[in-house]
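During the no-cost extension, the postdoctoral fellow (Dr. R.K.) reprocessed legacy sequence entries with the updated structure-token encoder. One reprocessed record is reproduced below for audit purposes.
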Amino acid sequence: KIISITCDNTSANNKMIEELAEELPMFLGACSHVRCFAHVVNLTAKGVLRPYHILGALLT
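Re-encoded structure tokens follow.
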């Protein structure tokens, strides 16, 4: 039995979850898809720091 799957946020992984839900009746699909917390934090940090990188490039 598969309880959950942890993976990053790529659209290919979303499609994989949809396919698994179709193939495995006990798999709950999107309810069982856990996004990798480290990947989410990394994306957030990049988004927060991006304006400072652009500003730094303009000042130099």
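Residues 5-59 form one domain. The longest helix spans residues 37-59. The remaining legacy entries will be reprocessed before the final report is submitted.
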